[in-house]
Amino acid sequence: MKPDLFEAPDYYNLDDLLTEEHKLIRDAARAWVKRDVSPIIEDAAQKAEFPKSIIPGLAEIGAFGPYIPVKYGGAGLDQISYGLIMQEIERGDSGVRSTASVQSSLVMYPIWKYGNEAQRQKYLPKLATGEWMGSFGLTEPDFGSNPAGMVTNFKDKGDHYLLNGAKLWISNSPFCDVAVVWAKDESGRIHGLVVERGMEGFTTPETHNKWSLRASATGELLFQDVKVPKENLLPNKSGLGAPLGCLDSARFGIAWGAIGAAMDCYDTALRYAKERIQFGKPIAAFQLQQKKLAEMITEITKAQLLAFRLGQLKNEDRATSAQISMAKRNNVDMAIKIAREARQMLGGMGITGEYSIMRHMMNLESVITYEGTHDIHLLITGLDITGHNAFK
Ligand code: TGC
Ligand code: FAD
């Protein structure tokens, strides 16, 4: 892979809106990605391996629980800092950002928000350092966009719960130490349970043959009569709103992360276009290529503004789920379109692993599907503005 020469576009001087702390956090994450992710990520993706060696680095830049209070091992930062960290990590690779999103928003967040003090003390500090890695089990083979239909369930057996079922498409599952699993009780109400590796009947087979997020490990969570101690149930929230609340936090991070992938594609294509000579001129001098680049920077700038404003609203605890959906949907769509255009600008070189663009493009096919598909987020906006539910 070519050396990482990334220069971040900031067409509307958005840095002026950031605090010094935001910039320090962002720049530290950016430098870490350049130093520790870029040199190894193409190889990891080609081999379809999650590069576990980067776990301590992710913890060091605050990517595990950026907004979780310091007393639980988190970084105690605001939501814009969280977004900036996700942006920089996904600039490197969406799969690496996935690992951080899951750990922070889908594992640490529910334990922090819905867990009791003993659960927070037990799990959060180890998750913050990466000593323990987590996964989040909501999706099932027959229930993806419609998680309310889940069939994974647990029965009260007096001194423990007995858990049965299967989760599919679970990021980090093959190596997770703990899994936050959503399952129905005997009355059909959804609860979160923390399942630990080593519990009898709990297995995590890996899903192979992915053309997307190849540097992220994806798998199943299988439960066959797993005895889960009663103290592992998250007591402070139940119902579908509990897992959906976690998704709000992760979708927010993705809205920022996708900007990183888009920035990397744009920056790579711009540099290439200035250097690549055809018909005696740099291809950057042709109108057709300028149209692509001009539209890319326009869309990136719009996405940055959307994410920044959403970050302000989230800091004030005023961001609605529908606002988060709009940003996730828009920004991932923006990134995937930029990746496709940027790939073409590199001609044949664009399909090789010498450049990051094709990897971003393939990764974004997952990002546009997980955490609510492109269609689902449109329907969330539709419901929000019309009051009519078009899901069912
Ligand atoms: P609905 O009747 O609308 O809602 C049920 C209850 O949930 C509440 N609620 C929310 N609460 C918090 N945040 C949200 N975003 C919420 N959306 C809804 C709602 O108020 C209600 O509460 P209550 O108290 O009245 O019961 O539910 P529905 O069954 O009609 O479904 C709505 C729909 C389709 C929007 C929802 O099911 C959905 O978002 N589906 C998409 C599923 C999804 O996103 N799955 C993601 C799995 S995790 C993942 O992909 C991780 S990828 C990780 C990575 O690698 O980065
Ligand atoms: P389906 O729900 O079957 O959807 C298929 C198609 O139908 C889509 O185009 C969808 O938009 C459309 N559709 C569905 N319902 C409607 C409707 N009402 N109206 C119109 N169109 C509709 N899940 C987890 O729980 N944890 C994870 O860590 C996790 N990580 C993932 C990692 C990867 C790499 C991938 C690919 C997925 C991951 N997921 C995870 C699962 C992800 O959230 C689901 O794939 C996603 O929610 C869609 O579900 P599905 O794949 O079953 O598609």
UniProtKB/TrEMBL annotation:
Domain Acyl-CoA dehydrogenase/oxidase N-terminal: start-end pairs: 19-131
What is catalysed by this protein? glutaryl-CoA + oxidized [electron-transfer flavoprotein] + 2 H(+) = (2E)-butenoyl-CoA + reduced [electron-transfer flavoprotein] + CO2
Name of the protein described by the UniProt record: glutaryl-CoA dehydrogenase (ETF)
Q: What InterPro entries does the database record attribute to this sequence?
A: Acyl-CoA_DH_CS, Acyl-CoA_Oxase/DH_mid-dom, AcylCo_DH/oxidase_C, AcylCoA_DH/ox_N, Glutaryl-CoA_DH_mitochondrial
Q: Which Pfam families match?
A: Acyl-CoA_dh_1 (PF00441), Acyl-CoA_dh_M (PF02770), Acyl-CoA_dh_N (PF02771)
Name the family.
Answer: Belongs to the acyl-CoA dehydrogenase family.
Acyl-CoA dehydrogenase/oxidase C-terminal domain boundaries: 238-380
What EC number(s) are associated with this protein in UniProt? 1.3.8.6
Question: What are the BP-aspect GO terms?
Answer: fatty acid beta-oxidation using acyl-CoA dehydrogenase; fatty-acyl-CoA biosynthetic process
A molecular function annotated in GO for this UniProt entry is: flavin adenine dinucleotide binding
* PANTHER family hit by this protein: GLUTARYL-COA DEHYDROGENASE, MITOCHONDRIAL (PTHR42807)
Please provide the record's keywords in A-Z order.
Answer: FAD, Flavoprotein, Oxidoreductase, Transit peptide
Q: In which pathway does it act?
A: Amino-acid metabolism; tryptophan metabolism; Amino-acid metabolism; lysine degradation
Domain Acyl-CoA oxidase/dehydrogenase middle, by residue range, is 135-226
Top-rank EC class of the record's enzyme: oxidoreductase
Keyword Kinase belongs to the record: no
| Species in which this protein is naturally found | Halomarinibacterium sedimenti
* Required cofactor(s): FAD
